[in-house]
Amino acid sequence: MDGSLVTAKDLIFDYPTKRALFDINLEIPRHGITALVGPNGAGKTTLIRCLVGLAEPFSGAVAFKGNVVADDPRAAHRAMGYLPDFYELYDDLSVRACLEHGAEMRGIPRAEARLRAERSAERLGIADRLDHKVSSLSRGLIQRAAIARAIIHEPEFLVLDEPAAGLDPDARLNLSALFRQLRDDGMTLLVSSHILAELEDYCTHMVVIRAGRVVDLADARPDRDRRRLVIVTAEPTEKLTEVLQRHDGIDELVVSGSEARLTLSGGDASQWALLRELVEAGVPVIRFRDLEDRLQDTYRRAVAGSEAAS
Q1: Between 3.40.190.10, 3.90.230.10, 1.20.140.10, 3.40.50.300, what CATH number should domain 4-219 receive?
Q2: pLDDT reading at 1 higher than 50
Q3: What is the pLDDT of residue 240?
Q4: Is 206 exposed, middle or buried (0-12, 13-18, 19+ CB in 10 A)?
Q5: Are 175 and 189 spatial neighbours (Cβ–Cβ below 8 Å)?
Q6: Is the pLDDT of residue 263 over 70?
Q7: Which residue, 40, 81, 88, 97, could crosslink 93 as a Cys pair with Cβ 3.0–4.6 Å?
Q8: pLDDT digits (tens, 9 = 90+) for 99-133
Q9: Cα separation of 196 and 63, whole Å?
Q10: What DSSP element (H or E) covers 161?
Q11: Three-state SS annotation for 226-266
């Protein structure tokens, strides 16, 4: 995949009593938001720790911008941000102190650390909470402070492990908007979760992992040239089937009563031509819309495929 920021090649990781990762091969594309999904215990956190250079694999290698992370992990860390599934903040310190501490730990001079803290807090919408103790904040604000700390050194690659755990619906929506903004600002994100619904709004790619193996690498963005459609008519009519069977670019056609589901190639022009042909043939169309392929569908197909292969 051209434009990959991070790659894993033949990655194997062993714990003392078991193998956790088996021959992992994957690529994280630049300027995207890749979802790492799988059930609890699948190996997501172990894989993340290998990707960011916090765990050394038994064999294989992780490369960041073409350089093997294990050869110089500190150099990689200077361009990476990592938020684990627990927030590395101190309850009795102010948000400002936590952010400045995070900056200095990354080698940023103290004089600049204060400016970085203010800039990062502004970016995350918590500038008015800089002098508040962490213990006084809501979970959603604590999470924003933790992300502000993770990006205080302006990383190219940001990794978040279960970032939405425990958040209320409003905080989850704000999180989606934040991730899209970070991507638009030029960051590459990897977000781990086993809750697919929270990834729908922002991820561009998906890696499915089960039992320590990658079972699918998918582009989660809709294919604008090839679309799945559902067409509903006011009443069953044979004209619906007749038109659909003779229209070019249609496959996977299933007609049941007054509803048809199909895949159509050709983009907007083909979709408009099909609708016009249906109307001109007198088909009483009352619904004509894209049937979006949700992450849940992609995940289920990947799991089904891996189970069939095994």
Answers
A1: 3.40.50.300
A2: no
A3: 96
A4: buried
A5: no
A6: yes
A7: 97
A8: 999 999 988 999 899 999 999 999 988 999 999 99
A9: 27
A10: strand 157-161
A11: EEEEEEEECCCCHHHHHHHHHCCCEEEEEEECCEEEEEEEC
